[in-house]
Amino acid sequence: GIVVPGGFGGRGVEGKIAVCKYARENNIPFLGICLGMQCAVIEFARNVCGIKGANSTEFDKTSVEEQQVVIDMPEHKGSEKGMGGTMRLGLRDTVFLTENCKLRKLYDARKISERHRHRYEVNPKVVSKLSRAGLLFVGMGTNENAAHVNGKVSSYATLLKLAECETSKTIEENNTQEMYEISEREVLLSKIEDLCGTGDDETDTTSVRMEIFELQGHPYFVGVQFHPEYLSHPLKPSPPLFGLICAASGQLESFLRGSKIPTPVNVLKAAENYGSNVAENVLQETHLFVNELSMLTDQNADESQLSGSSKY
């Protein structure tokens, strides 16, 4: 599996974008975190959606509006005095728009709270095009810095309401009401387009923030704007990171179906269930194993030097 982590600045970005393409085209489990998510969006916009020159305003200040797939967040733009106080920081809520996605099942919750540290975001204006091409934005947050409190409350209420919509629609035609069943994908796309077209004041283009995407048809191609590593723990790994490891080891689908608990998660869950002493013993045994493995490696290296030949 591949992780493209967060960061700032343009150094090495084209290499990160190339890695995103490689993982996408070769069905390699992938997790993009913060900037890594944005790089994956840029790559997809360029090579799947055909947006020539697609980029982030962080890296290319001369790009035209159509190329700006990642932009400064309107409410966090810097001033002439500098960039102080312009980051979106701390715990923020993300609401899943569908139950039929990997991270929704891994988190087992409709709404989650994760820590953030960024000042750029995926441009809501291109989200519909990206999603219809298969990069589905399954989790969204809201603009917590809306100019008016009512706008903030309203946008969050709209997000929650749309997230809870069923996979069917009632429409009026020829003065009669008929129920039309439409696919879950079309319902999700409809939610995405409704949300990305919702604004709360004249300065904001939208009241929502793109938090999670999943690539349709890929074993595990996931991007998150937040930093899952901040709340991860050895006995309770963060769902995006846990999902990546499961996918890389070929165990994700069986885990999501509930037919298998991946090793060593079953051991760790048992440790949690039976008390802290068991948990400590598991960790101690793990440390002993790693130390023994390290000593064995050093011993083999010393023997190779003495014999004048390598055993590897």
Automatic annotation (TrEMBL):
EC number, as in UniProt: 6.3.4.2
Family annotation (InterPro entries): Class_I_gatase-like, CTP_synthase, GATASE, GATase1_CTP_Synthase
Catalytic activity entry: UTP + L-glutamine + ATP + H2O = CTP + L-glutamate + ADP + phosphate + 2 H(+)
Keywords annotated in UniProt: ATP-binding, Glutamine amidotransferase, Ligase, Nucleotide-binding, Pyrimidine biosynthesis
Cellular component per GO, a single term: cytoophidium
UniProt pathway annotation: Pyrimidine metabolism; CTP biosynthesis via de novo pathway; CTP from UDP: step 2/2
Highest taxon, organism lineage: Eukaryota
GO molecular function: ATP binding; CTP synthase activity; identical protein binding
Gene Ontology annotations of biological process type: 'de novo' CTP biosynthetic process; pyrimidine nucleobase biosynthetic process
Name assigned to this protein: CTP synthase (glutamine hydrolyzing)
Species per Swiss-Prot/TrEMBL record: Wuchereria bancrofti
Taxonomy of the source species: Eukaryota, Metazoa, Ecdysozoa, Nematoda, Chromadorea
